[in-house]
């Protein structure tokens, strides 16, 4: 049986301080627990989302992992907690709180969990400071960041030192869409999640490719959520744009965008076996990592089921996607988890 590592899962603390009171202004998420063993995420008194206990209970998560034969979950915060909009010192304070919680959960269950921290990306110097703490002090294996940072796309020169430090530290970066473009204009039909998120991921990928980040930092480890969003099916259009309008597309990096596919990983969350096969063929079997978006509705109910059941991939490719690629991305091995169970 394949060793199974789910790179894309989200976790919250069971409780956290009243942030509006602590920081003196609104916009923050609070958690209101219910009698149904769930909790409501609320922003300034407005309901945002209801979560099950498996979003904040490590014990419930482990039970689900045992059910789905997931050996290891990689934990990261819920993107709404990024809080890039806030005062930098407050985002740093919240990031430290969330990262300390992640580290504690991992330390209490080292054979089942790995952590990816969060950073105050709107303040690069503070982000680098917290990145170092995550890797060097807390033992996390990387960070999760958003698809953009306020008015900055990921090509913003202000952000480059963060990527540079991540490469130096060997830290993995998982990029998750958030604060979706056009969300106010297409609020109906859940379109920000169905249309906006894939577009956000493509925005992030193209910003990094066209700015030359992957050329300048060839050893940077980056994985994009949701199978790379809309990018895989539009790489032909993106490449054609580079050919026909280099004056617009090739101003910062002269290389063909397709040359940088090998610099990226995508998770496997595409919900369709033909789409999965397409992404594997595009990126190669070493570049797709199991990701379920556990424990949310748009995720895969039984992590890895699509990979395991499809007849379009061979067993060797399945084993890589289900676990081996994640271990490589995170700089880990099976022995890191087997030894902690002894």
Q: Topology, please?
A:
Blueprint: E1 5-10, H1 19-23, E2 29-33, E3 38-43, E4 46-52, H2 58-68, E5 72-76, H3 88-108, E6 113-117, H4 124-137, E7 142-146, H5 160-169, E8 172-176, H6 191-210, H7 213-216, E9 221-224, H8 231-244, H9 246-249, E10 264-267, H10 273-283, E11 288-289, H11 305-309, H12 315-330, H13 335-341
Parallel strand pairs: 1-5, 5-6, 6-7, 7-8, 8-9, 9-10, 10-11
Antiparallel strand pairs: 2-3, 3-4
Helix pairs in contact: 3-4, 4-5
| Residue runs with pLDDT of under 50 for 5 or more positions | none
The largest sheet, given as strand count, sense and whether it forms a barrel, is: 8 strands, parallel
Tell me the distance between the termini.
20 Å
What is the global morphology?
A: globular
Cα radius of gyration in angstroms:
19 Å
Strand content: 15-25%
Number of helices in the DSSP assignment? 13
Overall residue-averaged pLDDT value:
96
Helix fraction bin:
40-55%
Give the strand tally. Answer: 11
Written overview of the protein:
Helix content is 42%, strand content 16%. The chain has 342 residues and is an alpha/beta fold. The protein has an 8-stranded parallel β-sheet. α3 (88-108) packs parallel to α4 and α4 packs parallel to α5.
Quick summary:
With 342 residues, this protein is α/β, with parallel strands linked by helices. The protein has helices spanning 19-23, 58-68, 88-108, 124-137, 160-169, 191-210, 213-216, 231-244, 246-249, 273-283, 305-309, 315-330, 335-341, and strands at 5-10, 29-33, 38-43, 46-52, 72-76, 113-117, 142-146, 172-176, 221-224, 264-267, 288-289.
């Amino acid at each position: 049986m394949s060793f199974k590592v789910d790179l894309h899962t989200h976790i919250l603390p069971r409780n956290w301080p009243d942030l509006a009171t602590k920081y003196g202004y609104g916009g923050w998420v609070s958690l209101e627990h219910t009698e149904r063993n769930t909790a409501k995420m609320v922003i300034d008194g407005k309901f945002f989302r209801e979560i099950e206990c498996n979003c904040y209970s490590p014990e419930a998560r482990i039970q689900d992992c045992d059910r789905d034969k997931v050996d290891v979950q990689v934990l990261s915060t819920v993107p709404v907690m990024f809080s890039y909009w806030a005062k930098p010192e407050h985002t740093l304070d919240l990031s430290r709180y969330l990262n300390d919680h992640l580290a504690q959960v991992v330390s209490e269950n080292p054979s089942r969990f790995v952590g990816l921290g969060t950073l105050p990306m709107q303040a690069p110097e503070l982000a680098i400071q917290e990145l170092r703490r995550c890797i060097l002090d807390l033992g996390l294996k990387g960070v999760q960041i958003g698809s953009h940072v306020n008015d900055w796309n990921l090509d913003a020169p202000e952000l480059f030192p963060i990527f540079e430090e991540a490469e130096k530290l060997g830290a993995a970066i998982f990029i998750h869409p958030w604060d979706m473009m056009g969300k106010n204009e297409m609020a109906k039909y859940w379109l920000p999640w169905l249309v906006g998120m894939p577009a956000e991921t493509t925005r992030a990928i193209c910003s990094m490719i066209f700015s030359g980040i992957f050329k300048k930092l060839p050893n940077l480890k980056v994985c994009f959520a949701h199978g790379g969003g809309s990018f895989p099916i539009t790489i032909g259009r993106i490449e054609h744009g580079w050919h026909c309008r280099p004056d617009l597309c090739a101003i910062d990096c002269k290389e063909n965008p397709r040359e940088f596919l090998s610099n990226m990983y995508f998770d496997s969350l595409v919900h369709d076996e033909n789409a999965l096969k397409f992404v594997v063929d595009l990126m190669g079997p070493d570049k797709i990592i199991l990701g379920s978006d556990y424990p949310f509705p748009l995720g895969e109910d039984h992590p890895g089921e699509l990979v395991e059941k499809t007849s379009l991939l061979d067993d060797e490719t399945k084993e890589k996607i289900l676990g081996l690629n994640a271990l490589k991305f995170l700089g880990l091995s099976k022995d890191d988890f087997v030894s902690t169970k002894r």
